Amino acid sequence: MGNSKSSALSKEILEDLKLNTKYSEAELCAWYTTFLKECPSGRITKEQFEGIYASFFPNADPTAYARHVFRSFDLNADGTLDFKEYIIALHLTSSGKTLHKLEWAFALYDVDGNGTISKNEVQDIVKAIFNMISVEDQQKLPEDENTPEKRADKIWNFFQKKDNDKIAEGEFIQGVMDNKEILRLIQFDEPKKIQDKLKEKKQ
Known about the structure:
Shape: globular
Radius of gyration: 18 Å
Low-confidence stretches: 1-6, 191-195
Order of helices and strands: HHEHHEHHEHHHEHHH
Number of helices: 12
Mean pLDDT: 84
Largest sheet: 2 strands, antiparallel
Helix content: 55-70%
Number of strands: 4
Strand order of the largest sheet: 1-2
């Protein structure tokens, strides 16, 4: 982006983000200033993105999850996110509309990007989620989902799939929309903490 290094957010990007996220102009401009301080080039690398997640979860290991989140938003696969991609990532992972959030969740679970989800891919993401849950909180989970394997099996069994079957995007979205329990199982509910931290930084 030609103006990605500018200290002012372009009007076009600002209007686009106001339209597609719940953030105000003041919030977006403040975040852009912080973003440029952290990433003077106007782009954030995968390593920087992982570092941001690490600062939010000092008692856990969010590296794998952050890597998957980064991949799902690095739409042009150039190994960086610009400010617009970064804010949309933040919005969708915390408070996006259900359909958009589920489209993103599908992209997150579709690790190899082939348009379907396999059981191995579900296991990969669920393991990454478990790395972010403290041991203490893991012990409070129900017996049938207190390990990554059990949780992945629970998700897979809901879709009534055999081990070698695949789940297509439409089937995934419809299944999750029809069952709030599966929505809970596929996601990690910490983004609110991330938003609170960002607000602290901004003040």
